[in-house]
Amino acid sequence: MTPHQLATLVVLLATLVAQAVVPSLRLLVVTTGALSSLVAGALLGQVAVGTVLAHVPWDVLVIVVVLGLFSEFLAQSRVFGVLALAAAERSGARPAALSIVFVVAMYAVSGVVNNLTALLLVLPILLNLLKLVGTTQRALSWTLAAVLVACNLGGAATPVGDFPAILLLGRGAMTFPDYLLRALPQTAVALALFVGATRLARPERDVPTSRLTTRLALTTMRALFRNVRVERRMVWPALGGLTAMVAAWTFVPPSWGLGPEVVAWAGAAVVLWSRPSVGETLFRGRVDVEAVIFLLALFVLVGAVRAAGTFELAGRALSELPVSPRVQVLVFLVAAAIITGLFSAGPGMAALLDVAEGLARQHPPAAVYVGLAMSVCAGSSLFLTAATAGPLTQALTERAGLRVEGGAPARFGFFQFLPVGLLGFSIILATGLAFTWSAL
After folding, report:
1. Facing residues of 409 across strands?
2. Domain-by-domain residue ranges, the chain?
3. Sequence-separated (6 or more) residues with CB below 8 Å from residue 436
4. Are the CB atoms for 388 and 115 separated by under 8 Å?
5. Torsion of CA 250, 253, 254, 255, to 10 degrees
6. What is the pTM of this model?
7. 344-365 pLDDT, tens per residue?
8. Residue 141: what are its φ and ψ, rounded to 5°?
9. What 3-state DSSP class applies to 16?
10. How confident is the model over 268-299, as pLDDT tens digits?
């Protein structure tokens, strides 16, 4: 390994560790790491800064911003609150049914919109229901953790559900229909196995319930949402725009030269012009600048390591393992899941995709890429800190003021999430490995 390769690799690893350990400063940490990697490349490897910046996947950033705007448009329409109330009524406010209905609902929603936005609007309703019905610490922990795992699975189910899948779509590694046809069945099987395993654990068995309690809870929630109506002038353009974008990603031939980012840009323009004043407000105040800068710095950091040839070196080391080529792919996927669990989904996927591209030249690309997406999904479900929405869920739970058995304040942190996280990690990873093995 050359000094250039060693320096950029050390900067990459130090940055990933630091942003995972101190998530409150992750923007500062990643931008500093990106700068350090550029300096190291210029001084040790004579790699021009412009060369690294030229390989930044700007199209991915466009898609991330556009989908964030669609999420905000739907949030402003109040559709999430109405859907959450419908889910509560569907479950009859019974603790076990409540968990299953919200898990399935969040899986479906997270495949379309940003799960942070969806959770911010749906989770308070679930927490209020649990407060009204009553819960135990174990039941609360399992319910919230299961919702987070379902969000991760939903994000991996479609090419626009979460950053790792968006990265595959934006970089042209897979087309929209190819990814959807392979990832959706895998995530659905993993979700079914996960829900079944949580039901075997019966976390709600100690929750005292009665027909009167559940009826009062539903009556209270209906009263709170009596005047909440979906803003149809916002929800229909947003849903129509998403449908049109999916149709274009699926059916527009590549020969037209209209990449996924152009389709996303056009879809956003049309939808936002449907409500110009609201669209202008969303553009000015709702664009997630923090996420864009974080991803840009991350792409620069990974690009500097790529320019040093470090990923090629890792690919050669993987190919030299004394096992069959199919087993080499599985070893890579297991390592990817563990790395993601330690460093979170975004940094993990960005750093591992270059190694996956080398494997995709020797094996069916769809098997490798979707297998990687499933491994990243498994890793992001391992720890609360690896789940994108984990800190948000923890904060909302603390603010809700729930009380559990004995009147103790409810807690939801690292150790409350861990048992369900380990279960979700094992099921998702095993499902992904099984599908990948059969496709190789």
Report:
1. 403
2. 3-439
3. 329, 330, 333, 367, 368, 370, 371, 374
4. yes
5. -170
6. 0.86
7. 777 777 778 888 888 888 889 9
8. -60, -45
9. helix
10. 888 888 888 877 887 777 677 777 888 888 88
